Amino acid sequence: MNPGLTLATAGRVLRQIRTDHRTIALIMVVPMVSIGLIAWIYNNTPIFDSIGPALLGVFPMIVMFVVTSVATLRERQSGTLERLLTTPMGKADFMLGYAAAFGLLAVVQALLATSFAIWVCDLDVVGPLWMLVLVAVLVAVLGTSLGLLASAFARTEFQAVQFMPAFITPQFLLCGLLVDRDRLPDVLSAVSDVLPLSYAVDAMKEVTAHPEATGAGLWSMAIVVGFIVLALALASLTLSRRTP
Amino acid sequence: MIETEGGPAVVVRGLNVVRGKRRVLPDISLVVPSGQVVGLLGPSGSGKTTLMRAIVGVQIVESGSVTVLGHAAGSAQLRREVGYLTQSPSIYSDLTIRENIRYFGRALGLRGAALTAAVDRTITEVDLDSHADQLVRDLSGGQESRVSLACALVGRPTLLVLDEPTVGLDPVLRRDLWNLFRDLAANGHSLIVSSHVMDEAARCDRLVLLREGRLLADVTPAELLERTGESDADAAFLSLVESTGGEEIW
């Protein structure tokens, strides 16, 4: 691993996205629009205050998963990945470069979505803003890591996009956004215990509900970090220098 | 640059490669001398690209050995020393020409002023100065393949493996690139260049002819003409490929 090459890759990924204004707009605006819609739907009810924080944890994951899985699939197909792996660039430099670039985008996305939720939609957030952003960035990096992994199993961009519902919908349904995880049927509750998004949402709920960091919140964040490491380790196995 | 001290650039021994269900390279052996431009010729599907991939070290091989500059193909010591141009351009269409070449230069460990100088030099070599800050997606096919070539040239590797570097280029540009290849060889670099254009064969030091994964000939251009009794490379190639007992001539 070489920090210089990681940074070079992060810079390259950001430069690529810079030329795609529509993608930038979608990454930044879609979470705000969705949060705004949900706040409006549940107008004058306490429901938004209970699911709003979870939503802030779901968006970075979904968006970064889709963007990363398509971007890395393109690298695999265009031959740029194979070419990079013939240079001193390591697999770790490549993957962490992506994680850093999308992590940075996630900071901006989280700031916009959180500000919008708090000041426009009147979301009740007790915890410090920076903790909220930190969790959002972790979740975004998780989405990026899972996207890197998922891209190995897609042969076409059609498949890569279909992985979004395949990978994300079960996690979305079971993460505690619709029904609290401890009120799920036993089997589903057990399944939700092994899905990464559950811990992202747990962390987000803890952070927004308490004025200071809680043990449960930090533990959930640690588990998210564990999932990131696991996903990156598995993804690195799919980046092979030699192919048939 | 790795000094090969007159040793061969590439040694291939008993190489077997299977892709899908087909044995693309059945037991091929070959020595590529250093400091030369070696042309890799043969009909489409003859195994040229597979052989180049094996030399670069990105091909899974069944058996046999490929040694490049004294190291096993694809080993870590070679990552700065071997430049590879794939047949279809492998570059980022949503970056500019300069950004593409900079990034690949950076991947090879160039930085600062040395990187900027190498990028500028390479852009001039492939004659893209006037377009350097355009996005690759706005370029023509021929320009795209030159950007891809530039990304292979930027690190000045000891061995350049170029899969059809001049396809789709006009004659002036092809001549200039071949002059560049000759200059590189004169300065001790080794080049393996695959081509479909037979008039380029005359500009190689050696020619390696493949058919169905077998080595049909490994000769100088003059020897090729002499042995086939033809007057130009095109006809010599045809007579060689079409002669059923071709292997026995050599």
Automatic annotation (TrEMBL), chain A:
<keyword id="KW-0813">Transport</keyword>
<feature type="transmembrane region" description="Helical">
    <location>
        <begin position="94"/>
        <end position="118"/>
    </location>
</feature>
<feature type="transmembrane region" description="Helical">
    <location>
        <begin position="54"/>
        <end position="73"/>
    </location>
</feature>
<dbReference type="Pfam" id="PF01061">
    <property type="entry name" value="ABC2_membrane"/>
</dbReference>
<feature type="domain" description="ABC transmembrane type-2">
    <location>
        <begin position="17"/>
        <end position="242"/>
    </location>
</feature>
<keyword id="KW-0046">Antibiotic resistance</keyword>
<dbReference type="InterPro" id="IPR000412">
    <property type="entry name" value="ABC_2_transport"/>
</dbReference>
<dbReference type="InterPro" id="IPR051449">
    <property type="entry name" value="ABC-2_transporter_component"/>
</dbReference>
<keyword id="KW-1003">Cell membrane</keyword>
<feature type="transmembrane region" description="Helical">
    <location>
        <begin position="218"/>
        <end position="239"/>
    </location>
</feature>
<keyword id="KW-0812">Transmembrane</keyword>
<feature type="transmembrane region" description="Helical">
    <location>
        <begin position="160"/>
        <end position="179"/>
    </location>
</feature>
<protein>
    <recommendedName>
        <fullName>Transport permease protein</fullName>
    </recommendedName>
</protein>
<feature type="transmembrane region" description="Helical">
    <location>
        <begin position="130"/>
        <end position="153"/>
    </location>
</feature>
<keyword id="KW-0472">Membrane</keyword>
<dbReference type="InterPro" id="IPR013525">
    <property type="entry name" value="ABC2_TM"/>
</dbReference>
<dbReference type="InterPro" id="IPR047817">
    <property type="entry name" value="ABC2_TM_bact-type"/>
</dbReference>
<feature type="transmembrane region" description="Helical">
    <location>
        <begin position="24"/>
        <end position="42"/>
    </location>
</feature>
<keyword id="KW-1133">Transmembrane helix</keyword>
<comment type="similarity">
    <text>Belongs to the ABC-2 integral membrane protein family.</text>
</comment>
TrEMBL record, chain B:
<dbReference type="GO" id="GO:0005524">
    <property type="term" value="F:ATP binding"/>
</dbReference>
<dbReference type="InterPro" id="IPR003593">
    <property type="entry name" value="AAA+_ATPase"/>
</dbReference>
<protein>
    <submittedName>
        <fullName>ABC transporter ATP-binding protein</fullName>
    </submittedName>
</protein>
<dbReference type="InterPro" id="IPR003439">
    <property type="entry name" value="ABC_transporter-like_ATP-bd"/>
</dbReference>
<dbReference type="InterPro" id="IPR027417">
    <property type="entry name" value="P-loop_NTPase"/>
</dbReference>
<feature type="domain" description="ABC transporter">
    <location>
        <begin position="10"/>
        <end position="237"/>
    </location>
</feature>
<keyword id="KW-0067">ATP-binding</keyword>
<dbReference type="Pfam" id="PF00005">
    <property type="entry name" value="ABC_tran"/>
</dbReference>
<keyword id="KW-0547">Nucleotide-binding</keyword>
